Structure to design on (194 residues):
């Protein structure tokens, strides 16, 4: 039976999935499924103390996230999903880099509504894409503070008004420092906290 340490070892060195071969991807998905079967938090949406916080992505099958590497001169840096349970919001933040002094941020702010004990519906509200230096980006927490304050950034900063920009996320494993989720497009996400 695969445990949490086994999953983390299987993921190690895969650069969030970018460097994984097809065989390695299958091994990771198998390890994820086995760990999900032993989720210590049967009602993760209600475990707000565990769910809340800044989560760092360590593995995904999401083509949208991994596809950032396909943009010429861009490399994917750290990727975060920051959950703010008190106001039912989440922020997806990808740090990107390439040419010196052109480090950037690609982010989406969203609202979520619990629809079961493990699923939330997500509505995307705002996208911000810009250079870290121009928008004053330092950390996910300070960036989120600026977003919540209603600040507009010197960046591509726009409201998402297309109601088609919705989705859902199942939280299939949750403990104090590991979260696994499955999204409506079939993507798997493994994140750590702390």
């Amino acid at each position: 039976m695969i445990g949490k340490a086994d999953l983390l070892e299987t993921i190690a060195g895969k650069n969030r999935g970018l460097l994984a071969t097809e065989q390695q991807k299958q091994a990771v998905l198998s390890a994820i499924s086995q760990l999900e079967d032993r989720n210590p938090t049967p009602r993760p949406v209600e475990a707000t103390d565990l769910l809340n916080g800044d989560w760092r992505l360590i593995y995904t099958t999401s083509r949208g996230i991994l596809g950032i590497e396909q943009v010429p001169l861009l490399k994917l840096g750290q990727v975060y999903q920051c959950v703010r349970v008190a106001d039912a919001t989440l922020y997806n933040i990808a740090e990107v880099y390439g040419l010196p002094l052109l480090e950037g941020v690609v982010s989406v702010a969203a609202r979520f509504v619990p629809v079961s004990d493990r699923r939330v519906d997500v509505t995307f509200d705002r996208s911000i894409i810009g250079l870290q230096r121009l928008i004053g980006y330092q950390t996910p927490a300070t960036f989120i503070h600026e977003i919540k304050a209603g600040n507009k950034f010197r960046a591509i900063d726009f409201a998402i008004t297309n109601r088609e920009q919705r989705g859902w996320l199942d939280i299939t494993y949750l403990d104090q420092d590991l979260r696994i989720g499955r999204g409506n497009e079939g993507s798997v996400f493994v994140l750590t906290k702390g």
About this structure: The first helix runs from residue 4 to 11.
